[in-house]
Amino acid sequence: MGTRAALLLGPPLLATAVYVGAFHNPFVYDDMRTVVENPSLGDFSNFRFVLLYQPFRPLVNLSYALDHWFWQLEPIGYPLTNTLLHSLNMLLFFLLCVRLPGTGRAVAALAAALFAVHPLATESVGYVSARAGLLSASFFLVSFVCFRGSLLDGKAALRARGSPSGSCASASLARDPGYAPACKNLDILATIEAPVSQP
Q: Which of 90, 96, 87 is nearest to 199 (CA)?
């Protein structure tokens, strides 16, 4: 594995390794209501019921339905999905950091690695019912990466309102709508104009 690949894949792999122990966590507390006793998960063909069962977090319930389709009520599958989302977020965070001026791949990888093992994520990764934070973070990070990329390639006017806006909208469907105003933070990235090398 080359240095570039190691820096790119290191943080996601580290994020997975840190939370391997969570794969055998049982369902606890709110998991009983959101997963075990959730009637919308039993019939994935009733897509409307799946989305409307948790009207403020439809994408979260959809992710539970997909888990249920693959794993039924085997606890191992649900924290596995949380861990994969956490690893995806580390990859996206790296891609965002490496696009910021003055941030090389090594610095971006270090930042993502610290983010991967930070105890702040413990609840979101290890607790199935806390998945909303992971999904919301995924969509927000996608929006930031896309927006920053659109500025670097000179197509901000066309793309900055496309993929980033769609990702922000999806983030609000993964977390309570009160988080939607965070989309306005995209203008912070718009003020950073210095080009950097792509990963």
A: 96
Report d(CA 61, CA 54) in Å as an integer: 6
The enclosing H or E element of 165 equals helix 163-174
Cα(138)–Cα(83) distance, rounded to whole angstroms?
A: 12
Closest Cα partner for 133 from 118, 148, 143, 122?
A: 122
Place of tokens 């959730």: 38
Q: At 186, list the tokens.
A: 């995209």
pTM of the predicted model as reported, rounded to 2 decimal places: 0.77
Helices 3-18 and 105-117 meet at what angle, rounded to 10?
10
| Rounded CA separation 66/44 (Å) | 8
d(CA 40, CA 149): 38
Output phi, psi for 94, to 5 deg: -60, -45
b/e per residue 135-161 (b: at least 16 CB within 10 A)? bbbbbbbbbbbbbbbbbbeeebeebbe
Q: Return d(Cα 174, Cα 196) in angstroms, integer.
A: 31
Q: pLDDT tens for residues 31-59?
A: 999 899 989 898 878 888 988 888 778 88
